Amino acid sequence: MGNGVDVTSLQSELEDLWKRRDEVPLQSAEAVAAVDAAIGLLDTGRVRVAELLDGEVVVHEWLKNAILLLYKQASPQPSQFGPFRCADKIPLKSAIDGVQVSPGAVIRRGSYQEPGAVVMPSHIGIGSYVGEGTLVDSWVGIGSCAQIGRNVHLSGGVGLGGMIEPPMARPVVIEDDAFIGARSMVYSGARVGEGALLGAGALLTDTIPVIDAATGEELSRGEVPPWTVAVPASRPREFAGGTFGLPCLLVIKHLKKGERHDKAKLNDAVRTQPPATLSL
Length: 280
Prior knowledge:
Elements: H1 7-19, H2 29-43, E1 50-53, E2 56-59, H3 61-73, E3 77-81, E4 84-88, E5 95-96, E6 100-101, E7 106-107, E8 112-113, E9 118-119, E10 123-124, E11 129-130, E12 135-136, E13 141-142, E14 147-148, E15 153-154, E16 159-160, E17 173-174, E18 179-180, E19 185-186, E20 191-192, E21 197-198, E22 203-204, E23 209-212, E24 218-221, E25 223-224, E26 228-239, E27 242-254, E28 278-279
Parallel strand pairs: 6-9, 7-10, 8-11, 9-12, 10-13, 11-14, 12-15, 13-16, 14-17, 15-18, 16-19, 17-20, 18-21, 19-22, 20-25, 21-26, 23-27
Antiparallel strand pairs: 1-2, 3-4, 5-28, 23-24, 26-27
Helix pairs in contact: 1-2, 1-3, 2-3
């Protein structure tokens, strides 16, 4: 896969290292080099922690293991972010190609942003992936290993949870053309389908029911269907202490494939391409 890295051999080496992590010195030159090579592949988008294959989320555990091994190997190092002094195990990216990045954006090494993405002041964790044409708005938090597709809009204050461990666990996945409303929270391996719109203030985890408003049918847990509009709601549940409303998502509209809801229309003006290579 370029850069002299044999990905198949590297995968085997890291899988073996992970199995013997309590027996071998993780600070050895060989172990450090193997982990660094994997993080380098993630950083340049040559591999990714998870991807959609035939409509299913496939997790590449060996890459998650590499991130966990990095945390075991690394010690906090002093760095500077603007006027602020930091001490962190994971350094920031040193270069971004073809991505518009505003002051205040914190992007960790080992994450990847495709050319054409726009990143406002926000935080992007290691192992995450942001697709071309996606807008990461102000104060968005993208957790480690979250996977965001192309032409997605993450509105202000959105939180996407990280999912490094357990290694086999599915990360948060936001598919192409989705719109996530302001202050929404998507966690615990939840998934927003292609072209779906999630209303402001929504909460979606792997246990949150997604209900069709027209029929009352529960469509899924933790997955918003493609090309739908879903808004936060609650439904009553009886407990010993009384009746209480528990959160759910209500699908209030089904869109035609390719149809854009008015709130989800992308603003091309903010997606002006920067120079091909931008050093940070």
